[in-house]
Every structure is written in structure tokens, then in C-alpha cells.
């Protein structure tokens, strides 16, 4: 298991130390991405509307069959229809799948294996993802080893895109071959494409750009995602 999501390393900008945000460790997030009923990572994260505590859907449904109190804070739920007090939390589930490497792929495989052994239950499940089928309608989750393609554009200090033929600060002027220039973005700005693993971080991207274009240390630049 990858214990650290990011690393905290100081960098120097213009000869002065530049403070970076502290790295977030996976262990620090366990309290909000694990289910206290099964002690595993959240799957089909479901939240109680009365207190906003979250659990696995299967875990909390089974728990409410025997108790009408929140497992964490003992807040009472709906007395006659307790299942009306729970809501699927897709945003939280997306976070869990994205910060825990390989969890989404393992869960989808587990579901496919189950329905292969129990085909009689397939008809009762309408959502493809609930059956472990990943298609265009599924959430976009990459494993660390998946290859992705990034589109890179240069923007000036005031947010204006650099005109074609004008290199960024620190970039060496050179004649660009048609095959190297790639497609043109709006406004005639040259666009670069980079194929990299999904585990490629913004920190890696910044180092890659600085080395590729020989950006001098005194120049400060940021890699923004949109």
C-alpha cells in the first residue's frame, strides 16, 4: 500500500526558500475513508442524514435492521423507516477510490466474479457498475499504472497564452518541426501532449518541464490543472 500520497520537499525560487504544502499521508485519512463497522475502506459510501457519519452501504443497512441509532454517535434515525435516513455519497466514494490505489479495480473484479457465479441475480441489478462492468457511464478512476495523455499549454504571467513562436521564460529558442509542434490550441498556441502513468504527480510534471525546457532557477512557474 502506498503510504504517502505526496512528499513535502522544499524548493528554491529566486534564491529564496519556497514553502510547499505538507504532504498528506494515507494513514491520516483512514478515519474518514474507512467504515467502522467492517474496518475496511468504504464501498458504496452511504451517509446518515441526521449526523453525516458514513459507512459501507451493506454494513449500515444490515446494522439498521437491528438498531435505530448511529453506530458512532448514537443519534436516533427514523423510527419506522430507518432506511430513509441514509443517502449514497458518490463524492466521498470517488475520493476513496482515488486515494487508495487499486481499490476500484479490485472491487469491480470482485463484483464480476460474484455475478459469474450467481447469474440468476444479474437481472435484479440495473446499474452496470454494480455488476462490476466498467463502461463510459462508470466513474473515471485510474490505477497508478494506467497510461494517460496530458495536453500541455503555456500561459503568460497575466494568464494570457503565449503566442506561437515565442518560447516561455528560460526556454531555448529552436526551430520546431511540424511533427513536434503537435496540434494548435485556440489562438495559435502550440500544444504539447505527454503520455505518462496515472501516478505521475504535479511535482513530477514541474520537474519534467523545468528540465525539458531548461528553465533557469530564478524563474518561478506553476503547473495548473483545468
Automatic annotation (TrEMBL):
An example Gene Ontology biological process: negative regulation of transcription by RNA polymerase II
Domain RING-type positions: 35-74
Record bears the keyword Zinc: yes
Keywords noted in UniProt: Metal-binding, Zinc, Zinc-finger
Compositionally biased intervals (Basic and acidic residues): 171-180
Record protein name field: RING-type domain-containing protein
Organism of derivation: Rhipicephalus sanguineus (Brown dog tick)
Record-linked PANTHER family: RING FINGER DOMAIN-CONTAINING, POLYCOMB GROUP COMPONENT, UBIQUITIN-LIKE DOMAIN-CONTAINING PROTEIN
CC per GO annotation: PRC1 complex
Xref: Pfam families: zf-C3HC4_2
Region (Disordered): 158-190
GO molecular function term, any single one: zinc ion binding
